[in-house]
Every structure is written in C-alpha cells, then in structure tokens.
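Lay summary. Proteins are chains of building blocks that fold into shapes, and those shapes determine what they do. In this project we predict the shape from the chain. Here is one chain we studied, written as its sequence of building blocks.
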Amino acid sequence: MKKWAEYSLVGILSVALAFVWRFAKDVLPGILLGIMLTASAEKTVMQTVPSPDGAYEAYVLWQDAGAIGGDSFVYVKKLKDIGIFQHENKQL
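And here is the predicted shape, written in a compact code that computers can read:
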C-alpha cells in the first residue's frame, strides 16, 4: 500500500475531478429539479390563530405543488414581548 506522499498530483487531481463530475452529473440535476418544482408551488394561508395573551400568532400554510402533491406548515410569529423590553414584531 502506498503512503500519502507517494501519490502523484495528477492522480489526486484525477480522483477529485471524477468526484466533481459524478456530483454534477448525478446529484445536481435532482437538486435543481427540486428547487424548480418547489418554487412554482402555490401557497395559501389556511388558518390563523392568536395565542390567549396575544403575544404570538400561529398560522397554517398549505403549499400546493400540483401533481407532485403538497405540504402543510405551521409558523409561529411573535407579535410582542411580555417582559421589560418591548420590541417590534419579530418572526420566529
């Protein structure tokens, strides 16, 4: 077995280039397709519910991606701080 110092620079670069080529050929198209399909999804707020003390607001978002299905998300938005310091609206 060769030691690390015995490998040639050309051999190391050819292995690195093969890895980059395999990533670009096999993985990258799937990532780009997923980004394109997700970006074209229609988003709809289904329901908004305030917290009892009014400090938070939760809302359910439905993302319809057509033939590939859809997802639902629950977001919580902080409306005000209850402590000593008061801040403007912040989204968590």
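What the prediction tells us: The chain has two domains: 1-40, 41-92.
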